[in-house]
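Annotated sample (chain length 239).
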Amino acid sequence: MLIAALATDYDGTLAAEGEVAEATLAALQRLKASGRKPLLVTGREFPDLQRVFPQIGLFDAIVAENGALLYRPDLAQMRALAPPPPHAFVEALRRRGDEPLSVGHTIVATSRANEAKLLEAINELDLAWQIIRNKGSAMCLPPGVNKASGLLAALDDLALSPLNVLGVGDAENDHAFLAACGVSAAVAGALPALKAAADLVTEADDGAGVTELIDRLLADPSSLTATASRRFELGRNET
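Output written by the structure step:
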């Protein structure tokens, strides 16, 4: 299978404690020099990502807010992929004392300890919004918006097929976008359910695991394949 791009989550995958190691940055540069495209798929809000990761130009596309925003560094262009949250929804959460509360262009995020308050506000306003878990966080987004929908928008921009993407992540919100990739991987410290669903599990954790995947891809692309249950049948000859 031809791997033309690597799509990686940020926290707990590319980064450890919010920081990306120099060795991982060097691996991304090697990947880019090979003609393949690095893509970032994160639940972080974009200004927060810029603050912790100034090297965003290494990526050909960045999907932020868990699929709600698409940024193209080469064009310095941001595109919203979902509408903003209803004002009444945000106010309902504030009335409930939902803290910490982070409101992005679309995403509304808080601690998982406040998940019941999120559900109460959604039900109170008869919204169709969904709750997506990410380890200790709970995120709210419009229906159908997730990391997979954001990745597919980015790939459409770049004229790439998801079948030619190697995806890597570590948490619950990575299931959707990894399932959309031709080959999926989980870093060593990923949640057990994600590791069980992935085609590959790295020996190393966090950015070292991403570096491991990149080095393996550059050395022997044929070693990165989907498991039998996830292989795509493109056609058959009838006799």
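Annotation: The helical segments are 22-33, 46-52, 87-95, 115-124, 147-157, 175-180, 192-197, 206-219.
Annotation: Residues 87-141 form a domain with the Hypothetical Protein Ta0175; Chain: A, domain 2 fold (CATH 3.90.1070).
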